[in-house]
Specification:
By secondary structure, the protein is α/β, with parallel strands linked by helices. It is built from eight helices and nine strands. Helix 3 links the parallel strand 5 and strand 6. The radius of gyration is 19 Å and the shape is globular.
C-alpha cells in the first residue's frame, strides 16, 4: 500500500493514497486471520509476559459476547481502548464520542452492557490533549452541532484554564452523570454488581492513571 505525507501536517504523519482501499485491505488481512482462527473453533489462553491473553473462538463470537469491561472514552484516533489495554475481540464493550461525554445515547449503551451483558467494570477514560475539552475551554466559533457537543463539557469544567485538570474534571463529571441519570447503573453500583472507575490516558507515555 503506497502512502504519502500529509500536506500541511506535522512531519512524521502519512496517509494512504486511497483511504478506502487501505481500509478494505486491512479488513482482508483481519478476515484471513479470523477465518484461520475459526477453523480451530476453540477459545485459547495464550501465555504472554507477564499476563496471559484470551483469544475467543470466532465461531463463539458470531453468536454471543461476554465482555468483562465497558469503556466510555473519546473518539480521538489515538485513543483506541483495544490498543490501550491490549485486548482481543469480545473483551471490551466500547462507547466513544468526542470528549467522552455521557449523552443519552452513551448512557443507554452503558445500560445495555451492564444490564444485559453483565459487564462488572465500567471505566470513563479521558486523555491528555483532548481536542473536545480544548474547544470547550476556547472561544472560537463552532458549528451548531459542535457547540451542542461541547456544551456539557463546558459545564463540567466550569471555566478551568488548565487542560490537564479540565480533562480529569470532565471525565469525573461524565462518570457522575452516568449514575445520576440512570437508575440501572446507580443500582448496579450500589449493589456491587458494577465497579465504576475513572481514568486518564497519557499520550506521551501510554499510561492510564486511575483518578477515581
Amino acid at each position: 500500500m503506497r502512502v504519502q505525507p500529509v500536506e500541511a501536517a506535522e512531519e512524521g504523519f502519512c496517509v494512504p493514497e486511497d483511504p478506502l482501499q487501505a481500509l478494505m485491505a486491512g479488513n482482508r488481512r483481519f478476515a484471513e486471520a479470523w477465518q484461520r482462527a475459526d477453523q480451530e473453533n476453540k477459545t485459547t489462553l495464550r501465555a504472554a509476559n507477564p499476563d496471559p491473553r484470551c483469544f475467543h473462538s470466532p465461531r463463539a463470537l458470531a453468536t454471543s459476547q461476554n465482555p468483562w469491561a465497558t469503556v466510555l472514552t473519546c473518539s480521538d484516533s489515538r485513543v483506541s481502548p483495544s490498543w490501550v489495554f491490549d485486548t482481543t475481540p469480545g473483551e471490551l464493550f466500547v462507547i466513544r464520542n468526542a470528549g467522552n461525554t455521557a449523552f443519552t445515547e452513551a448512557i443507554a449503551s452503558v445500560e445495555y452492557s451492564v444490564s444485559v451483558l453483565k459487564t462488572p467494570l465500567l471505566m470513563v477514560m479521558g486523555h491528555s490533549g483532548c481536542g473536545a475539552v480544548t474547544a470547550a475551554m476556547g472561544t472560537n466559533p463552532l458549528t451548531p452541532s459542535l457547540d451542542r457537543l461541547i456544551q456539557p463539557i463546558r459545564e463540567n469544567i466550569s471555566g478551568s484554564s488548565d487542560l490537564e485538570e479540565a480533562v480529569k474534571r470532565n471525565a469525573l463529571a461524565s462518570a457522575s452523570t452516568l449514575v445520576q441519570r440512570s437508575a440501572v447503573l446507580a443500582d448496579a453500583k450500589t449493589s456491587g454488581a458494577l465497579k465504576l472507575v475513572v481514568g486518564c490516558f497519557q499520550l506521551n507515555s501510554g499510561v492510564v492513571t486511575l483518578i477515581e
